[in-house]
């Protein structure tokens, strides 16, 4: 035991020496565009500071929306605090089924199934559908939960370089030459670290050519991208050619927690029978279900918030570009500011923290070595003033660190 713990301590020391330790700060009130933050709790804790939040997945600002909170209160009053059961034993309420149907209708699919998180939905989706003779062809930048889900299935695995259609075609041919029975191409709709969009029409063309299906994880799109917030299949025009969509309730749709798969009926029916994170994990809490339902209703109608989000995105992107920062190109509200190595990402984050801007440095293993960045994210909970302040702070910090 002692030997083992000192081994673990050595690992932690190595992480710290490499400048890779992640430290948490604490928000003292609800999630929003302007937040109150402290670096520690307890008697000697410094008083909380007001900060501008540029790193939440709170794209439409619904995490603290009064109607969402009221709906969650109603869920608590009418349906209680917790389910204390998995779905198939006694954990399914009418509201769970209503939310599934609303998600399916929103995404134009036959049906949907809820999970405790999209991490679970992605972990669940492949294993019941595919066997040894099948193939999964997965984008190299896919979210960790897709990578884990692929590992849990018995299907043969193929990987293609991020958004590289030539390599995708090569992998599809390889799978065919190895007599794959069924093939699924798996991709993020929006790549969370880069903020780029998957070329879904081209992916679907290749899927058609080689008789494959397409699965899209739309966590960073559902609710705020595409007409009506229907996500990247709608945004790119791929539409119903995408067979399976997974998504989260933990980002745009209220930001609480929960995930889902939306797909043709037989796929959802099999998930209810076989998906392990569904069968062996607790139901979503009623307040989360009713709050998320309200968030979905708001998001569907929120063209004004989507417009505001797009406007702030453009404004911030242009401001950083004019200041001389190295940004990854893209149109989503994810705007990565590239800085090179992990210590520089930490330094820039620390400078910005001092200036009242809440951001997080992203570095290995979350992104590849040497590709460290500050990933900023826009939100409809921010205002014009916040963006001006943030651009000025980035400029000051960037000059101090000789990044610009
Ligand atoms: C956030 C995210 C997930 C995980 O979603 P949770 O509901 O928080 O588990 C999965 N995939 C992608 C692409 C994500 O961005």
Concise synopsis of the structure shown:
By secondary structure, the chain is α/β, with parallel strands linked by helices.
Description:
The protein contains 15 helices and 14 strands. The protein has two domains: 83-301, Aspartate Aminotransferase, domain 2 (3-Layer(aba) Sandwich); 303-335 and 349-369 and 381-395, Aspartate Aminotransferase, domain 1, CATH 3.90.1150. The model has no long low-confidence stretch (mean pLDDT 96). By secondary structure, it is α/β, with parallel strands linked by helices. The structure holds pyridoxal-5'-phosphate (PLP). Pyridoxal-5'-phosphate is lined by residues 117-119, 122, 143, 145, 188, 192, 217, 219-220, 248, 250, 259. Pyridoxal-5'-phosphate binds next to helix 5.
- Main sheet strand line-up: 4-10-9-8-7-5-6
- Using the coordinates shown, work out and report the CATH topology of the largest domain: Aspartate Aminotransferase, domain 2
The tally of domains stands at 2
The CATH architecture of the largest domain is 3-Layer(aba) Sandwich
Computed CA radius of gyration, to the nearest angstrom: 22 Å
Secondary-structure element series:
HEEEHHHEHEHEHEHEHEEHHHHEHEEEH
Structural class assignment: alpha/beta
Q: Please estimate the helix content.
A: 40-55%
Query: Which residues form runs of ≥5 with pLDDT under 50?
Result: none
CATH level-four homologous superfamily name of the largest domain: Type I PLP-dependent aspartate aminotransferase-like (Major domain)
Bound molecules: pyridoxal-5'-phosphate
Major sheet details? 7 strands, mixed
Our estimate of the beta-strand percent is 15-25%
In the CATH scheme, the class of the largest domain would be Alpha Beta
Q: How many strand units? A: 14
User: What sort of overall outline do the alpha carbons produce when their principal axes are compared?
Assistant: globular
Mean pLDDT: 96
Distance between the termini: 49 Å
């Amino acid at each position: 035991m002692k030997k083992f713990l000192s081994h673990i301590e050595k690992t932690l020391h190595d992480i710290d020496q490499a400048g890779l330790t992640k430290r948490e700060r604490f928000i003292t009130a609800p999630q929003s565009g302007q937040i109150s933050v402290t670096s520690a709790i307890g008697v000697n804790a410094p008083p909380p500071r007001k900060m501008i939040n540029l790193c939440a997945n709170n794209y439409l600002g619904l995490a603290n929306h009064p109607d969402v909170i009221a709906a969650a209160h109603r869920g608590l009053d009418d349906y209680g605090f917790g389910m204390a059961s998995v779905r198939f034993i006694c954990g399914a309420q009418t509201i769970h089924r209503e939310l599934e149907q609303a998600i399916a209708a929103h995404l134009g699919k036959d049906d949907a199934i809820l999970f405790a998180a999209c991490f679970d939905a992605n972990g669940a989706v492949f294993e019941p559908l595919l066997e040894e003779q099948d193939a999964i062809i997965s984008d190299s930048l896919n979210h960790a939960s897709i990578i884990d889900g692929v590992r849990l299935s018995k299907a043969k695995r193929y990987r293609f370089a991020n958004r590289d259609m030539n390599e995708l075609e090569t992998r599809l041919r390889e799978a065919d030459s190895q007599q794959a029975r069924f093939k699924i191409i798996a991709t993020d709709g929006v790549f969370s670290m880069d903020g780029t969009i998957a070329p879904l029409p081209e992916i679907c063309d290749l899927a058609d050519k080689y008789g494959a299906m397409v699965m899209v994880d739309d966590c960073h799109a559902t609710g705020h991208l595409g007409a009506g917030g229907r996500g990247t299949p709608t945004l790119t025009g791929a539409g119903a050619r995408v067979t399976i969509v997974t998504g989260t309730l933990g980002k745009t749709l209220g930001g609480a927690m929960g995930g889902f798969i939306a797909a043709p009926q037989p796929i959802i029916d099999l998930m209810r029978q076989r998906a392990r994170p569904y069968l062996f994990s607790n139901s979503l809490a009623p307040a989360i279900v009713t709050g998320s339902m309200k968030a979905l209703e708001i998001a569907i109608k929120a063209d004004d918030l989507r417009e505001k989000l797009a406007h702030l995105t453009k404004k911030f992107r242009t401001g950083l570009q004019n200041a001389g920062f190295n940004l990854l190109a893209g149109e989503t509200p994810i705007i990565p500011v590239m800085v090179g190595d992990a210590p520089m990402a930490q330094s820039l984050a620390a400078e910005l923290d001092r200036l009242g801007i809440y951001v997080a440095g992203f570095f290995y293993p979350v992104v590849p070595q040497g590709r460290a960045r500050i990933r900023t994210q826009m939100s409809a909970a921010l205002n014009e003033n916040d963006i001006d302040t943030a651009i000025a702070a980035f400029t000051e910090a960037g000059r101090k660190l000789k990044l610009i």
